[in-house]
Design brief:
Length: 475
């Protein structure tokens, strides 16, 4: 007889663990399906002794599974205890090969040939099964690896670490204690990286403990004989560079397992490589009763993913639950009475500002946590020409006036209305402000930190395309 559950959770990462723990504490019939032999495979693969940060600090944690900043080992140990305490129904080696049906009647096929049924399905499978490779000749050589388990295994080596995200920085810093390490960043600065890691890597470079190459891209990796078994070839702002080394560790993130998820019937909003499924505020996909949480839904931070795991169970049980970030967003929206509720305010921002139209609701919520809504008085100065500030501004309502000069040198005030944006030169190049901008009547602005915008540009192609198009027209 086929087993039937109220909720089937696919994947035992932070969001899946949280969902299963919450279902278990409520006494709800559930099963947690994990393809591997251990829970939370991604964190199991973190480097030994890695310090895991509990960001964003402003968000509360709502989950029966505990989480606080600590080492990988401490966090995994607590989760192991809690899996037993709540008697979570977890099955290891249960690789899901197919999902059919919709709310109330899902059939789930396993690679083993077994199957089960569920009233609702939560996809919490993450993205680590789709590691991005170098994409250049030599990417599969034995001297190239895409994972670092224990930094202490290597000493007195020259090691290239490609990828300046959190994982790359943390690997480089750990290896640099007993090796010559060169960190490769294809950008000119760090994008989407925790502030603490930026401070640590900048200090290590300043103290000569770590080498950094910015604006640098991999050309190829070549195997060699001799004291250095590899040559890493790259293009830099100063031209081509070849670095003899012992190994290359590439930490380039991962892509959504799109083919698998689409086979389950879930639709993506675009063909962009980094696109995530378009979800409702309840984390429900286009397939009724099939929910997506965690990194697959565009939410890679552990605390946020765990909150989603808790909330999605509440949604499935049709119990009222407010998103963990709701009070924070409400406080931001309160100065703009026309916005109404948080949901209405978010919808109005996406309607009024085409730049953000391609974001999912979850992506926009996260972006809003880092941004501020301003309601400046008419005539007040937003910034002056030659200022060093580099925030990015979007006009949500009303207008701003950009000071310029006519053909004869006479002063002009060029109006920029709702849907426009300004400050992109500071965003792109970090240069001083090129004009003075003042508020017009009934002006509502969204001010976003430069780092938040750079992170958005790196992760959402539609934002980059729109900004490039408008910037080109202005140029």
């Amino acid at each position: 007889m086929t087993e039937r559950f109220k909720i089937a959770i696919v994947g035992s990462g932070p969001s899946g663990l949280s969902a299963a723990g919450h279902a278990a504490e409520l006494g709800v019939s559930h099963v947690l399906l994990e393809a591997g032999e251990l829970y939370s495979q991604t964190i199991q693969k973190y480097q030994k002794g890695k310090h895991v940060m509990a960001e964003p600090g402003i968000l509360p944690l709502r989950s029966p599974m505990s989480f606080a900043a600590g080492t990988r080992e401490e966090i995994l140990g607590k989760w192991a205890d809690e899996l037993g305490r709540y008697e979570v129904n977890v099955r290891y080696g249960a690789q899901v090969s197919g999902i059919k049906g919709q709310r109330g009647a899902f059939q789930i096929a396993l690679a083993s040939g077994d199957g089960l049924e569920a009233e609702a399905v939560i996809l919490a499978i993450g993205m680590q099964g789709n590691i991005r490779k170098l994409g250049t000749p030599g990417e599969d050589l034995s001297c190239v690896q895409y994972q670092l388990d224990d930094p202490e295994e290597y000493s007195d080596e020259t090691i290239i670490v490609v990828g300046a995200g959190d994982a790359g920085i943390e690997n480089a810093l750990a290896l640099a204690k007993q090796n010559r390490v060169i960190l490769i960043n294809r950008n000119d600065e760090f994008v989407g990286v925790k502030d603490g890691n930026i401070s640590l890597v900048q200090a290590a470079v300043k103290e000569g403990k770590l080498e950094l190459r910015v604006g640098t891209s991999t050309v190829k990796v070549v195997a060699k004989d001799g004291p250095f078994p590899a040559e890493y070839m790259a293009t830099t702002p100063d031209g081509a560079e070849t670095i003899p080394c012992h190994r290359i560790i590439a930490r380039l993130g991962a892509s959504p397992p799109r083919a698998l998820v689409e086979a389950f019937g879930v639709e993506f909003p675009s063909k962009d490589r980094g696109a995530v499924p378009r979800l409702s505020e309840r984390y429900e996909s286009n397939v009724p009763g099939l929910f997506v949480v965690g990194a697959l839904g565009g939410c890679p931070l552990i605390k946020q993913a765990m909150n989603q795991g808790y909330e999605v169970v509440e949604h499935i049980l049709e119990r009222p639950v407010e998103a963990a970030d709701e009070p924070l967003l409400k406080a931001k929206f309160d100065p703009v009475p026309s916005f109404g509720s948080v949901a209405e305010g978010l919808a109005q921002i996406q309607t009024n500002v085409p730049l953000f139209a391609g974001l999912t609701t979850l992506q926009l919520r996260e972006f809003m946590l880092e941004s501020e809504l301003l309601t400046p008085k008419a005539g007040s100065t937003i910034f002056l020409r030659n200022d060093y500030s580099n925030s990015f501004f979007s006009v949500v309502e009303g207008t701003v006036l950009v000071e310029s000069k006519g053909k004869g040198g006479e002063p002009l005030d060029i109006p920029l209305g709702a849907g426009g944006f300004f400050g992109e030169m500071g965003l792109i190049s970090g240069r001083r402000r090129s004009a003075t901008v003042k508020a017009g009547p009934s002006c509502v602005l969204l001010e976003s930190p430069r780092r938040s915008m750079l992170k958005l540009l790196a992760s959402v192609n539609s934002v980059k395309r729109e900004l490039d198009l408008v910037s080109l027209k202005r140029a």
